[in-house]
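User: Assemble these into one structure.

Assistant: Restating your components, then the assembled model:
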Amino acid sequence: MVSYKQIEASNALLNDATAPRVSVFVGGTSGIGQLTVRALVATGASLRIYLVGRKASEQRTRAFIQELRAVNPRADIVWTEAEVALLSDTKRVCEVIRTKEQRVDLLFLTAGYAPMGARRETEEGLEVAQSLEHYSRILFVRLLLPVLGAAAAPRVVSVLGGGLERASSVNVDDLDLKKPGNFTFIRAQTQYVAMHTLALERLAGENPDVTFVHSWPGSVNTGNVWRGLQGQDPNSWMAWFVWLVLEPVIRLVGLLSSSDEEAGPRHLFQSTSAAFGGRGVPWEGKPGVNSLGKPEDGLFLVNYKCDTTPNVKAMHVLREKALEKVWDHTQEVLRPYL
Ligand SMILES: NC(=O)c1ccc[n+]([C@@H]2O[C@H](COP(=O)([O-])OP(=O)(O)OC[C@H]3O[C@@H](n4cnc5c(N)ncnc54)[C@H](OP(=O)(O)O)[C@@H]3O)[C@@H](O)[C@H]2O)c1
């Protein structure tokens, strides 16, 4: 485990020269994204952050931006509206950022929720949580790679479930879980996590100059568990289960492990420390190992203690059984937007 003291010491070294100069936060309007933006801005460094969010969240995000400007007047926060569950809008917003910026140092991805309710699809025919947590995130990476590649130490951090992949998590015959009976909360969550890791590992292999992190935040009480149930029957057994069991457990674990208060600084560390691949704020502790088990750059599966795991057994099976199919299918879904 990386101690919180080590996290604070590393983040204290962030300044104009070492902090990401230009960042794109997709999901920085709430939760872990917002906590990480707050920690980044609090460094006092001169930086620009694109806060990408949906229209419905603009008003409260503007208040958040005022707060950030008061903390750090040298932080240029650019509100950037987009409905990122839609791949067409993801493409549009990436084009906007690419016309404004020659380089992006950090792409930080958190949009998504636990798909606990009934299956809901976007107008593009994708399950909403899968689009947010996998397809849209991979599209952001693909479309911003040209500007990420221009940065000195570019990094992509995607917050979901890195390290939680299981050998049996991917149904290669139904990658979008469209067949009757296949879409359940557990199957969807585990499948999206594994698909995302496989695609990120592939991208990391193809882009050795970019550091990739797939983070599992543990249990942070952001209200995320309720999002999948929005607009659905508040008296369903799932709603009662979340209210009576899941949310109290999340709150308790968050309190006991300090993950609520530490989440922002820990994700800032994951976004900037050389512990992951050697580029970034110097790190004298044990170097993290990538998903291939090597202490060198690539994809890092990082947990809430900032430990890395190659998740060897599960990843070995998933590479053999699912990698090509997941990659080909993801390419097929994204092709109209590339
Ligand atoms: N919190 C945890 O303990 C935990 C644990 C494991 C995994 N995760 C996963 O990690 C990621 C980040 O978690 P979090 O707790 O920070 O999440 P969060 O605060 O609940 O939400 C993160 C972002 O997702 C956006 N979002 C949610 N539904 C959306 C939709 N339908 N369309 C567009 N944007 C939408 C939110 O935008 P708005 O601000 O506009 O609502 C917000 O910016 C999520 O994928 C979550 O499932 C979280």
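The mean pLDDT is 94.
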